[in-house]
Write a structure and sequence with these properties.
Number of strands: 13
Distance between the termini: 30 Å
Helix content: 10-25%
Shape: globular
Number of domains: 2
Order of helices and strands: EEEEEEEEEHEHEHEEH
């Protein structure tokens, strides 16, 4: 689990390019994709991080990280690239994270191959694919959240440990997802495993949601499900099949009718979660 969303300084780095003068970015800056390739036509979220000199740019590193990045999106069509969006801006997010990320958001209506090109970044940018609705099985914006009996403190349903958060399990296992969908409140449902996360982002994501829950209170139902059913991470839990997932973590946010209004993949912090839930 999680391999498609993990940080990889090999497969996920965009080609090196010349940084523009005055961009505030290192001359050898590279783009690190922080999202799985499961984007669906419509509203898309494309979070990226930055690398330089073969290493990720971190909060405490020698290279400063800009408060925001601007970019354009091009559609790849054979040998021609057509600009479809310009001057889109992503703010920096780094609450509780060692590696900051910048989530670009855009509306892309047509399936196909695209390229995100940073102002002052690599000329080749970062390529990504947008699929047609129905080609990606994981629930997305506009889909109903699947109803199933997620593990609870009263009935772990064969998942052990129920929650791999340390030193104690998170408090988001009091009711099942099936029960939550009957209450008539918005739901924030996290699927991820702090102990075995391939991306290294599940633990901070869970803490961000726990802290958000403390602020928001009971206006939203917060739930968490683990990815694995056993402590050795050899068997996937029911949540993986129910949500048709092949990566982690993912946070599904619904309206009062259980319809997904936001889905955050791979990396997100408390600031981004709060802005969406509030």
């Amino acid at each position: 689990m999680g391999g498609t969303a993990a940080i990889s300084l090999g497969s996920l780095l965009a080609a090196c390019g010349s940084a523009g003068s005055g961009s505030g970015l290192p001359d050898d800056v590279q783009i690190v994709q922080r999202f799985p390739q499961n984007l669906v036509a419509g509203r898309v979220r494309v979070p990226i991080s930055l690398a330089s000199n073969g290493g990720l740019l971190t909060v405490d590193g020698d290279s400063a990280t800009p408060d925001q990045l601007s970019a354009r999106i091009l559609r790849i069509d054979g040998d021609r690239d057509t600009v479809i969006l310009e001057d889109i801006v992503a703010p920096k997010h780094d609450a509780g994270l060692a590696t900051p990320y910048w989530p670009f958001r855009a509306t892309i209506t047509e399936p196909g191959l695209y390229r995100l090109v940073l102002d002052g970044g690599p000329d080749d940018g970062a390529a990504f694919q947008v699929f047609a609705r129905g080609e990606v099985p994981v629930p997305g914006i506009g889909d109903s959240l699947p109803s199933f009996d997620s593990p609870t403190f009263d009935d772990a349903r064969g998942v052990s440990p129920l929650c791999t958060r340390q030193p104690e399990p998170c408090p988001m296992h009091h009711i099942t997802l099936r029960e939550a969908l009957t209450i008539g409140k918005p739901i924030a449902f996290l699927v991820g495993t702090p102990a075995h996360c391939a991306t290294g982002t599940c633990a901070p994501a869970l803490e961000a949601i726990v802290s958000t829950r403390e602020i928001v209170g009971d206006s939203t139902t917060f739930l968490h499900a683990e990815v694995y059913a056993d402590p050795d991470a050899t068997r996937t839990a029911e949540a993986v099949a129910a949500m048709s997932m092949n990566y982690e973590p993912a946070l599904f946010i619904t309206d009062t009718n259980g319809i997904v209004v936001e889905r955050l993949d791979a990396v997100f912090d408390a600031a981004e979660i709060r802005s969406l839930i509030s």
